[in-house]
Amino acid sequence: MQVNGYKPLIVAFCCNWCSYAGADLAGNNRLSYPADVKIIRVPCSCRVNPMFILRAFQRGADGVIICGCHPGDCHYTSGNYYTRRRMAMLFSMLDYLGIERERTRVEWVSAAEGAKFAATMNDFAEKVAALGENKRLEDLRCKQ
Amino acid sequence: MKVSYFPGCTLKNKAKDLDLYARRSAEVLGVTLEEIENWQCCGGVFTTSNDEVATKLSSVRALKEAAAKGQPLVSVCSACHNVIKQTNHAMQNDAFFASKVNNYMGQEPYAGETTVYHYLELLRDVVGYDQVKAKVVNPLAGKKIAAYYGCLLLRPNSTMQMDDPENPTIMEDLIKAMGAEPVVYARRNECCGGYVTMENPEFAKRKSLDIIENAKAAGAEVLVTACPLCRYNLQKAGTDMPVVYITELLAEALGVKEVTNEQ
Amino acid sequence: MSSNKKFLQEELTRMSGVNPKKCMKCGKCSGTCPAYDEMEYHPHQFVSMVESGDIEPLLNSKSLYRCLTCFACVDRCPRGVEPAKLVEAVRLVAVRKQGANHMTANDVPAMLDDDIPQQAIVSAFRKYTK
Amino acid sequence: MQRIGVFVCWCGSNIAATVDVEAVSEALKLEPGVVFSTNYQYMCSQAGQNIIKDAIAEHKLTGIVVCSCSPRMHEATFRKTAAAAGLNPYMVEIANIREQCSWVHKDVPTGTEKAIILGKAAVAKVNLNAPLIPGETPVTKRALVIGGGIAGIQTALDIADAGFPVDIVEKKPTIGGKMSQLDKTFPTLDCAACILTPKMVDVAQHENIRIFSYSEVEDVKGFVGNFDVTIKKHARYVNEAACTGCGACTEKCPQKKVPNEFNLGMDNRRAIYIPFAQAVPKVATIDPNYCNMLKNGKCGVCAKVCAAGAIDYTQKDEYIQEKYGAIVVATGFNPISMDKFDEFAYNQSKDVITSLEFERLTNAAGPTAGKLLRPSDGKHPHTIVFVQCVGSRCDAKAEKGKEYCSKICCMYTAKHAMLVKDKYPDVDVYVFYIDVRTPGKNFDEFYRRAVEEYGVHYVKGMVGKVVPEGDVLKVQASDLIANKQLHIDADLVVLAAAIEPDKSARPLATKLTASMDTNDFFTEAHPKLRPVESPTAGVFLSGACQGPKDIPETVSQAGAAASKVIGLLAKDKLTGNPCIAHSDEMMCNGCSTCERVCPYGAITYMDKEFRMPDRTTAIRRVASVNPAVCQGCGACTVACPSGAMNLRGFSTQQIMAEVDAICK
Amino acid sequence: MQAITREQLINKAVALLADGTVKYVLGWKKGEFDYDITPAVFETAEELNADFVWNDFCGANFSKYLVAKTRKLDGKILVFLKPCDTYSFNQLLTEHRFDRDKVYAVGIPCNGMADIAKVKEVCGDGISSIATEGDALAVTTIYDDEPVKVAVESVLAERCLNCKSKKHVAYDELMGEDGDTLDSNRFDEVAKLEAMTPDERFAFWQNELSRCIRCNACRDVCPACTCEKCVFDNPTSGVENKAPANSFEEKMFHIIRAFHVAGRCTDCGECSRVCPQNIPLHLLNRKFIKDINEFYGEYQAGAEVGSRAPLVNYTTEDLEPGEVFDRRDTNA
Which chain E residues contact residue A13 at CB under 8 A? Predict the structure, then answer.
C-alpha cells in the first residue's frame, strides 16, 4: 500500500478467538490486504495495554488497530467491553493531544468475517498511508 | 405554612366552589394558599409537541413566581395541575425546550426548581391524612363516596407520579380520613369525554354514563372529582347521581362549609 | 418514500418525540382508547401509518379532533410508543396550516350552555386552532 | 540467553510460492539467540517433526520458532513435538507466514520481507519465554444442585445415576417446584403430577442423592473441583427422621386461616402443613408466622396428636458444611407481580387471575377439586378471556414489565383454552394475542387444534381495560384484523403474566461469582457453544434460571448440565491452562482493581508480611490468582496500574518485544 | 483568610493527643520559605506549638501520606482534611491502601489556597517572608523592607477558583461548617482545547510538555499514584525511563500516568501545584474526567467508598471508540 509514495507500518493486535481466526479466514479465502499490516496475537483484546500502542508509535508505527470479538461474543464474556472503554478513553486523549484520529482504530471482527478483516485492513492502511509518516508520536532517536 | 396557589380560569368563574372550599379547608389544616399575582390561564390542556413553546409560558411564569418565593406551587383543578406539572417536567428534562423558554422569558433562567403539588398531594404528602382526620369535626359517616379521577390527575404517570395510575388510592384515602366509605370502581380513571363535549356532547354523555353506571354498580351514592370539566360532563349525563367537588366534601367534614355559604 | 413524505415523517417524529418503529403492533392503544368508535383512524393506525409514511389521510381525517389526549394509550403501551403524542403532532401539522383551524370563535356560541366551564372552551381552542 | 532454533516450512508451494523460505531462514539466523535455522517442505509431517526433534537434541535448543501455518492449526502439533524431544512445550512460538502472509500477499519480495519480520517477532518473543507447567488440582467427587424443581430433579438423577453423590438444596419444604403446581402439560396433555411425582420418588429413594429441603445456600467458597458450601437448614420444628407424614397434625391444627401458597392463596392451610399429598420429603413443617405455640406458647395440639413424637418446638436453624466438585444452579422462575398492570384489574377483582392460578383452578388437587369455578362467587364461568404477553416484551424504559418474550405463555394458554373447552364445551373462550409463538415439536399443531377443533376464539389484538361491574368483567380490547374495538362481558379473565428469575438468584450469583444479565438470568459461558455452563468454572446452569424455558427444554438442558458435571467429576485431577495471570507481590498494591474486571472471580486478596526497604516489616494486602479458575484473558493486566499483574505466555515484556521487533 | 485558626487546630490536636485518641498528628510545617509548606508528623504539644503551620499555603493533600504513615507508625494518626482531600481519602480507602482504623480524620473548612506563582507575578522573586493579614498577604522581598499587600482572593490557585466541593465526604469529626458540592467551571479549559484544531492542540501540548524535566514531582505527590513500584521505575516493565530522553517520552509518561489514574483521579490538582515547570497537568486528568462523565455518566472518584470506577466497569451499550470523535464534533 502506498499513498503519495508512503508505505506505512501498521501493527494489528488481534484476539486469539475471533479476530486472529478472522485473519486466518481472510488467508484461507486469499483475500489480500497490504503487507504493511503485521499482526500480534493476544488472548483477548482486553490484553492490549495502552503502553503497547504508545510503544508501537514510539518505535515508528504509523497506525495501530485493535481487533476483538464483537461485543457480547467475547470468549471471556466481558473482555472486549473493557477494551471498548479503555480504547475510547485512550483515543480521545490522543486526539486531545493533537494526534491524528485516523492512526488508531478498534474493529470487531468475528472468526467468520474474513472478508471484513481484509476490507478493514485495506481501508485502515489506506487512511494511514494518506496521513504519511507519523511525525507527531514518533521517536526519532529510536528509529534506525 | 404558606404555599403558592394557581387557581385557574374556571375556579374564578364556573367553579368558584372548588376554589373557596379549597382555601377554607386549607386554612383549617394550617396551610395558606397564596394566589400567584397576575396568573394567566394555563390553556386547559398541555400540548405535548416539544416545539410548542408559547403555549407553556403562562405555566412557567407561575412556576417562576413560586420559585422566587421558595414555595411549592399548588393547584386544585386537575387540568391546571396537569399542564403545570408537565411543563415543569419539560423544563427539568428537555434542555432544548428550556433554553427556548428562557430566551422568551429573559432575566433569571428557570430550570424546574419549583415543586408542583396537586391539592390532594399537598394534603397527603405535606399535611398528612392523619392531620386531616384529626381536624374532622363532622365525619361523613355512612356515606358511600366514589372518587372520580379522570385522566389528567394520574397520566402520564411517568410525569405526574401521583399514585398508581391504574388503581389509585389518594382520593379513597382522603374519603376514609373524612369518615366516609370509599367506593372503588375500575372506570374511575377513564376519560369523561373532556373538551370534545364542545363538538360532540353525545359522545361525552356516553363516556360519562359508562363511568356513572360502573360507580353505581359498585354501590356509590355520590361522585367526587377535582376537575370542573369532569364534573360538567358527569352532570350532563343526566342521571340522578350527585357529582360534587372533593373540596366541598372536605369543607363539610372540616366544618367550614356553612361559613362559606353564609358569606 | 418520496422526499416530501419523508420530511413530514421526520417532522412528526421530531415534534412528538415518538419513535414509531418501537411499536410491536399489539393494538393495546386501540384496545384502551375511549374515543375509538369516534375515529376513522385508530391510535395504532396513526403509529403504523406514520411509520410507513402514509400521513396524508391522517392529516385530512376528523379522527384528529376526536383524540381526548387522555394519555391512556401513552400509559398502557407496553413499548413506550406514546401514540397520543403522535396524534397531537399530526393535528398540529394540520391546524398550523393557514386557515386550517378546526374551530373558530364564531362556532363557539352555538356550543355553549350555562354550565359549561371555561376550561372546556380554552382547551378546545388550544387543541383545534392555531 | 536462549538457544533458539528456527524452522521455516514451505507448506509445499503454499508458502514457498510467495515467500523465499531460504532467505527467511537465513535472515533469522542473525537474530539474537538463534543458533540454528533451517527450512523444510512440510514441517508438520513426521519427517519435518523429526528435523525439529533432532535439532533440539543436537543444538541443545531451549526454544523454537516454527514459521508455518496459523498457530490455530498446528501449535498443538509442534508443542507435542517439542515435548517429545524433552523441551517444555510452552517454549514453542509460531510465526504465521501462511494464512497471514503468503496467502494474502502476491509478490515474493513483499511476502519474504513480511515473513522475516513475523519470524523476528516470534524470535523476540521466544527469547522471553519461560517453561510453563500446567497446575493440577484435585476434584471433590460430589455435586450440589441448587433448586429442586424439574430442572434440579433431572440434573440430580442423571448425575446420581452415573455414580456420583448429589445433594439437592431446596428452599421450600418439598421438592417439585413449579411443575408440581401444574395441571396438564403441553403438547401432549398428560398430567404433570403423573410424570413428575415418580421422578420425585426416584430422587427420594436414590442412594446417591440427599435432599436438603427448607434449606438455602448460605455461603460458597473455593473454586472448580473444590467448592466449600455452607447450607442453612431452616428450623421446621418437626424432626424429619421421626415424622411419618401421616398428616394427623395437619388435620388437628387449630390455626386454619393460613393462605396456602401451593394454591397461590386461593384456599387456606393449617399452621402445620405438608404442601401437597405427594410432597418429598413427606414431612410436616410448622409455619412460625402462624403457629400459636411458637408465637405465644399456647397450643401444642400437634405435639399431642403426633404418635411419632416428631414435633420439636425448640428446633433451631442448622448449618451444614459440605465440599463439592461442581455446582448446578436450578433456581427456576416465578410469574411477575401484576401490581403495575392494574388496567386488567387484577387487584380489583378476584375473577381476574394469573395463568398459574388458573392451573390450580383446573387441577383435580386444587382448591376447587378441578371444577372450573370463579374465585369470587364459585359460579361456573361462561365467557373466559385470556390475555397474552402481560408484562412480556415491554420497553425497558417503561419500567413496568420485562423486555424479553416469556416463551411458555403461548403454549400454556392454548392448553388452558383447550382444557376449558374439553371440560365445558359451552364456554366461550377468547385469547387475545400479539403473536402466537409456537416453535417446538408438535407445538403449532397443538395451537391449531385449539382453534380448529375446539373453537377457541383467537383475536389478534390486546386488551386495553378490564372493568369489573356487578358480576361481570367488562373487557375492552382491540381486534386488529377486524379493525374494531371489542367489548366482551367476561366471567373470568386470565393473565399470562411474564416470568422472571426467582428472587434468590441474584444473591446466589454473588455468592457463586457467577455472572447475570440485566434481567437476573444467569449468563452462559458461551451463548451457542457452552449454553449450560456459567463463565465461572465448575458452576453449571439448568432450567429457567438461564432463560425462559418449557418442560422439554428444561429437561434436556438439565441432562446436558448433568453430563458436563459428570465429565468434570470423572476426572481425578484438573489440569489447568498455564497461560494465566499471576501477580508480583512485591509490586502489588492490593487495590482490588484487578478483582473487579476478572470475569471469573479468580482473584482473591490476603494480608502478607513484607520486609520494607528500611528493614522494618509491614503487612500489605496483595492479590493472588487462583490458577484453577483463571482463564487467561488478561483483563487484569491492563487494569493493574503498577504492572504487578502479568500474563504467562503473553507477558507485557513478550508483547513489547514483538512490537519492537515489528517496528524496528 | 481561613475560617479555622491555627490555634483552634493546635488545640484540637493537643486535646486528641492528651486523651489518647491519637498518638500522632499529621500536619503542616514551614519549609525553607514561608510558602513551601511541607507535611510533618507531630507527637507532642510542644512540637505543635513550635512548628505547626496553618495558612493560605497549606494546600498539600495529606491523604497519600496515610499509606506510608499508617504502615510505619504504631498508633492512631490524626489527619486534617480539607474538603478536596476527603475525596482522595475515600478513593484510597476504596483501593484498600490504608487501614481506616488507624486514622482519626478531622474535616476542616477551606477557603481556597494561594498560588505562589501568582504571588510572584505580583511581587517578583526574592520573597523573604509572607504573613497573613486578614484577607490579604503581606509579602516582603529581599529588595524592599516594606511589605506588599496582596489580596488572597487575587492569587487563589486555579484549582481553588474552580473548586468542585466544599463538602467533606469523609471524616470522624468536623470542625467548622460543612459546605456543599459546587457547580464549578473546571471543564471550561478542557472544552476550549477540544474546540481547537488538532494542530493547535498539538502545538499547545508540545509547548507545555516539552518543558517537562521528568522530576516526577507530579507522580510523587499524586494521591492516586501510590503504587508500590511505579511502572516507570520498573526495569522489567518495558517502559522504564528515569529521564526524558526525547519529546516522545514525556508524552508517554504523562499519557500513561493520566490513563492509570483515570476514573481514580479525584481532581485534587496537586499535580499542577507541585510542577516546577508550571505544566497544567490537571488538564490531562480533567479531560479523562470530562470524557467519563460524558461517555459513561457522571462519576466523581472518592465521592463514596467502594464505588466501581468507570474503567473497571462497562455496559453492553457503551459507545464505540470510533464514536468518541463524532460525539464531540456534534457537541462542538
Answer: none
Residue A139's pLDDT is: 46
pLDDT band at A143 (very low <50, low <70, confident <90, very high): very low
pLDDT surpassing 80 at residue E180: yes
Is D94 strand, coil or helix?
strand
DSSP secondary structure letters along C57-94: HHHT-GGGGT-----HHHHH-TT---HHHHHHHHHHHH
CA angle C85, C86, C92 (to 5 degrees): 90
Nearest-angstrom CA–CA distance, E200 and E190? 13
CATH architecture of B2-119: Up-down Bundle (1.20)
Residues of A in contact with E204 (CB under 8 A): 98
Domain ranges of chain B: 2-119, 129-262
In this complex, whether D and E touch, counting 3 or more CB pairs under 8 angstroms, is: yes
Judge if E49 and E167 occupy the same domain. yes
Same domain, E264 and E136: no
Q: Which three cell numbers stand for residue D112?
A: 519474504
Distance in angstroms (rounded) separating the CA atoms of residues C124 and D187: 55
Same domain, D195 and D218: yes
C-alpha E237/C-alpha D655 separation (Å) is 11
- B129-262: CATH, from 1.10.1740.10, 2.60.40.1180, 3.90.1150.200, 3.40.50.11810: 3.40.50.11810
Domain count, chain C: 2
Q: Cβ contact (<8 Å) for C36 and D485?
A: yes
Contacts of B15 in chain C (CB under 8 A): 117
Dihedral angle at the C-alpha atoms of D643, D646, D652, D655, nearest 10 degrees?
-160
Co-location of C91 and C110 in the same domain: no
Give D516 or E230, the one with higher predicted confidence: E230
Chain E residue with minimum CA distance to A135: E248
Neighbours of D444 (CB within 10 A): 17
Contact D460 C27 (CB under 8 A): yes
Name which of A47, A52, A128 to mutate to probe chain D: the one with the most chain D Cβ atoms within 10 A of its Cβ: A47
Helix axes A79-96, E247-261, angle to 10 degrees: 130
Cβ contact C70–B79 (<8 Å): no
In the predicted structure, residue A138 carries a pLDDT above the cut 70: no
Residues C65 and C108 both lie in one domain = no
Instruction: Tell me if A82 is assigned to some domain.
Output: yes
Based on the fold, state whether residues C79 and C19 are members of the same structural domain. yes
Instruction: Give the model confidence (pLDDT) of E190-243 as tens digits.
Output: 999 999 998 899 889 888 888 888 888 999 999 999 999 898 888 877 777 665
Is residue D653 included in any domain, yes or no? no
CA distance B79 to B92: 20
CATH number, residue A28: 3.40.50.960
How close is the nearest chain D Cα to the Cα of B168, in Å?
Answer: 10
Domain that holds residue E167: 6-113+162-174
Across all residues in chain E, what is the average pLDDT? 89
- Interface subset of E 254-283, CB within 8 angstroms of D: 260-261, 264
Q: What are the tens digits of pLDDT across the range E150-179? A: 998 899 999 999 999 999 999 999 998 888
The model scores a pTM over 0.80 = no
**Which residues form the domain of D33?**
4-126
Q: Which residues of C touch D401 (CB under 8 A)?
A: 78
Residues of A in contact with D535 (CB under 8 A): 76-77
Which candidate in A46, A49, A97, A137 is best for mutational testing of the E interface (most E CBs within 10 A)? A97
Predicted confidence at residue D513, as pLDDT, reads 76
- Residues of chain A found within 8 Å of residue E319, distances taken between Cβ atoms: 84, 88
Within-domain flag for E303: yes
* CATH code of D77's domain: 3.40.50
Distance from CA of A55 to the nearest CA of D (A): 7
Q: Is the pLDDT of residue A141 over 50?
A: no
Q: Which chains touch C (3 or more CB pairs under 8 A)?
A: B, D
Tell me the H-state helices in A29-113.
Answer: 50-58, 79-96
